[in-house]
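Service request form, structural biology core

Requester: graduate student, group of Dr. S.
Request type: structure prediction, single chain
Budget code: on file
Notes: please return the result as structure tokens.

Sequence provided:
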Amino acid sequence: MKWIMSEYLTSDQLKEFQEQFLAWYEAAGRTYLPWRQNRTAYGTWVSEIMLQQTRVESVIPYFQKFMAAFPTVEDLAKAPEAEVLKNWEGLGYYSRARNLQIGAGQVLAEFSGEIPHEVENLLKIKGIGPYTAGAISSMAFNEKVPAIDGNHMRIISRLFQISDDLSLSKTPKKFAEISENLLPKNRAGDFNEALMDLGSMICTPKNPKCEICPLKNFCQSYKEQTQEDFPVKTPKTKAKDVYYVALALGNSSNEFYLEQRADSGLLANFWQFPLVAVTKEEFAKLSTETADLDLFSVAEENFNETELFLKQQFSQLDFSKIVLQKRSLGNIQHIFSHLKWHVTLFYGRTTDNATPLVNLQDTKLPLPKAQHKLMALLVKNGYDF
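Core staff response, request fulfilled:
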């Protein structure tokens, strides 16, 4: 504890720090969260994977649904992938679900179905990185190990005015060493969860509520009013804009044609309306030139050009049995970590009963969130499914 004691906290101050922080957690922590009410290693694992890049409020119903569908590691490992993805549908970042299932298989094969408590063994499991390993080990097994995520680093950087850049790969290791010195011997899991709650509720990225913070008397940046200067982090690269045209192809029974994405890459194996990439210029022309016009007043020559373009782009479809609507139904945007999708939606009515069509209300096929946005746009334009 040399680093902490010599530069920031004496032994007595550290003890007071721990006691006050844990007392605050007992009084104000989010004990209502379902994965905390009945703590298990498996539930902790599932919740931590779901919480990656997703708000707690959004995760709660998904966690409850997922745990009901796959109550044990074995249930998850042996389930069809499509069923796992369906229960993850709408949560996004679907590689998390795939890795979680692969990891469950590893637990069965390599650890006799028991989730290990050691960080070094947890790190052998697909999809588990240093933070998740620390969270499972400390929270489910009360091992004295840190669980370093963005919340933890933000709090520690403000507490001790640490200016190391969070975007650098070496920085989490330094914060892990500092955090380990702060952990109480017998309540590491509670302490890590208290840091999560403090970062979510009080020590927020912007406008932290310092006046009600249980750690304000220990916080260097609060004393010097430099809270907004920490943490230091190089901005992420802006997501790349990409442009698509989607075609909602339905029949008189309001069933729709879906295509499955490739079995690797972004949204692998998910189902969606036919979707093709276009240039930014093509997207602008398709999505705006007729969008504000009445359905039946579009100039024929303009639509003929659009129809020809759509037939060329969706060449896999038999347009002899399709009647296209004469305008785009509108646009949606969907942001991934590295991409920003812009999609304009067209509608077509098909009489091809040989084409497999799907009732979108009842389907068990996994549909990505972007697809749900397109379906909402369809409903907004007066169509049903």
